[in-house]
Amino acid sequence: MTESITSGLPNLAKLGKNSFLRYSRYIILGVVANVLLWGAAISYLKKTPPVYISKWAMIMPGNGLGVNVNLADLGQTSASSSSPFGGTSMDPRANYQFILTDESLLEIAATSQKIPISKLGKPKVKLVDNTSIMEMEIGARTPEEARDNATAIITALQSRLNMLRAEEIDKRGENNDVTLKEAREKLQIAQKRLSAYKASSGLSSSNQVGELSTNIEILRKQKAELSAQKELISSRFQQLSDSLGLTVPEVSDAFILHADRQFLQNAKDYSEANTSLTVLLAKWDVNHPLVVKEAARQKSAQTAMISRAGELLRKEVKPSYIDHLVLGDSSGSSRENLFRDLIALDSDRQGAIAQNQALEEQIFQLEDRLQSLVQKQVVFDNLQREVQIAEAVFASTLAKINLAKSDIFTAYPLIQVLSKPSLPDKKSSPQPTVVFLGTGIGSILVTTGLVMLWWRKEIKQKVGLGKSKPVEVI
């Protein structure tokens, strides 16, 4: 038994020596690992240049522009630009996100800042959900440089968008010019056809038929009024004729005789001679020289009067007929006044008859012209309708082109700066607190790992020693 104890002592001494060496090795390894970890962290903090981040936001208005134009007697045209967020298939902010990170835009911004594009870097763009807002940020070595770089990117974005809008308007304008030219040519052709038909047909406007119909109705009304007036004059004329005891042919002969100055002078001479003879016969007998002389004068005036009446009436006239026409059964101013009224009524009656005939002929001519114009009206209306359609198309096309030129935000919507680039008051990286915290956590993890590794081997050795033969002691 003494030999067993003696033989086990060297083994225990050897085991203690190995444990010390292994423990020292793990300690050294842990120290080296922590020194390297903390050295790298401190070196990172000292050598890494600071980064300051400037942030800004931009918004895209969502309301579309709408314009309506009323064209007198032609119709209505409208032009509108839909909201950029009206559809669900595309978000225009995604296009702007691509443009913001495109090298051509960044090159413009870097050139304006007089720095290389690699130093400018790319901005980070975030699209805020359920809004039209874009949040952006970019970093630089100093706060002022970060803010200036952000401002340069905004300016470059606006410049790039304006250039794209101008190119889009130019390309769209080429197609618009072709469309406008075609519409103008169609309008000119329609106008020439209408003008040629106006010249050949005598129909100058669509209202001409209506105006002609109105004129015919006015003339018919005038004719009816004139006919009524003629009947009234004829009735009055007949009454006066009956009052004078003259028939219509006798009235006609009387008008002829009373219209002749020579006959009237002969009738006057006969009347004066007859009056003088009557006065002389009251004083003297028929053989008295004065009576004989006056009777000869009466006879001569009567003969001249009858002769002139025969020439005017172109027929044989008896003295009694002349007396009936000129003086009638009675004499005096009353009969002369009635005869004068009869002459005036006859003049009015003849004038009414002539006007009535003239109106009838005019109405007949206008009705023939109306019938001709009505047939031409159909063709005229068709040609005028073609002109109106061509005018409407041309005016609508021109209005839409002009409105489209004024609306430059159709393809590339308007974007505005919601919040200006900020001037950061502290650097974003490196952050000592974060670095130290991360380094500390790493140091803890490394140390814990080494300790667990040492415990694992120590436990294995203890388990192996317990399985070996026990030492007997007496």
From TrEMBL:
Q: Name one GO cellular component term.
A: plasma membrane
Keywords of this entry: Coiled coil, Membrane, Transmembrane, Transmembrane helix
> What is this protein called in UniProt?
Tyrosine kinase G-rich domain-containing protein
Q: Where are the transmembrane segments?
A: 26-45, 434-455
Annotated source species:
Pseudanabaena catenata USMAC16
User: Is Metal-binding there in the keyword field?
Assistant: no
PANTHER family on file: FERRIC ENTEROBACTIN TRANSPORT PROTEIN FEPE, TYROSINE-PROTEIN KINASE
Q: Which residues form a coiled coil?
A: 147-236, 342-376
**Is Coiled coil a UniProt keyword of this protein?**
yes
The protein's matches in InterPro entries, at most eight in alphabetical order, are given as:
Bact_polysacc_biosynth/exp (IPR050445)
Q: Which GO terms describe its molecular function?
A: protein tyrosine kinase activity
